[in-house]
């Protein structure tokens, strides 16, 4: 196993190299050309799985004075909308958390996308 650290906006992972690409609570900022997102999608091998999980937008509040708006970042539903017919969406839903939120947070729901690359 090897770990690589890179900026997705400039260095995408190798294409079709992974059976699982798991993105957990990773703030991936929207781009007009979806460049970084496409790099992640391309990294999933045929027959592989993309798993993208984040906090539900209903639980997040913008902090515009700090330059943060959750709507500026991809949500699972956005990603499902970018997928073409080479993908099958298995799960795209909001789920309540089964454990209490960590101290100091108020996240009660997560959104989950699980998609399988067909080709």
Question: Can you walk me through this structure?
Answer:
By secondary structure, the protein is mainly beta. The protein has two helices and four strands. Helix 1 links the parallel strand 1 (18-24) and strand 2 (44-55). It is globular. 14% of the residues are buried.
Task: Indicate the proportion of strand residues.
Answer: 25-35%
Helices, by number, come to 2
Residue ranges: pLDDT <50 for 5 or more in a row?
none
Task: Please trace the helix and strand order, writing H or E for each element.
Answer: EHEHEE
- The CATH C-level name is Alpha Beta
CATH superfamily: Vaccinia Virus protein VP39
Level of helix content?
10-25%
Give the strand line-up of the largest sheet. Answer: 1-2-4-3
* Tally of individual domains: 1
- Strand element count: 4
How big is the Rg?
A: 15 Å
**Mean pLDDT reading:** 90
N→C terminal distance? 25 Å
Organism: Streptomyces violaceusniger
InterPro entries: SAM-dependent_MTases_sf
Protein name: Methyltransferase type 11 domain-containing protein
Task: Please give the structural blueprint.
Blueprint: E1 18-24, H1 35-42, E2 44-55, H2 76-82, E3 87-96, E4 109-117
Parallel strand pairs: 1-2
Antiparallel strand pairs: 2-4, 3-4
Protein name: Methyltransferase type 11 domain-containing protein
InterPro entries: SAM-dependent_MTases_sf
How would you briefly describe this protein structure?
The radius of gyration is 15 Å and the shape is globular.
């Amino acid at each position: 196993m090897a770990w690589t650290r890179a900026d997705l906006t400039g260095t995408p992972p190798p294409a079709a190299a992974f059976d699982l690409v798991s993105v957990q609570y990773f703030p991936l900022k929207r781009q007009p050309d979806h460049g970084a997102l496409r790099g992640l999608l391309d990294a999933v091998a045929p027959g592989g799985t993309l798993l993208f999980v984040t906090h539900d937008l209903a639980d997040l509040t913008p902090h515009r004075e700090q330059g943060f708006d959750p709507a500026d970042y991809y949500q699972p539903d956005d990603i499902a909308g970018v997928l073409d017919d080479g993908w099958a969406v298995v799960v795209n839903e909001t789920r309540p958390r089964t454990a209490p939120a960590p101290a100091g947070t108020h996240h009660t729901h997560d959104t989950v996308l699980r998609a399988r690359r067909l080709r």
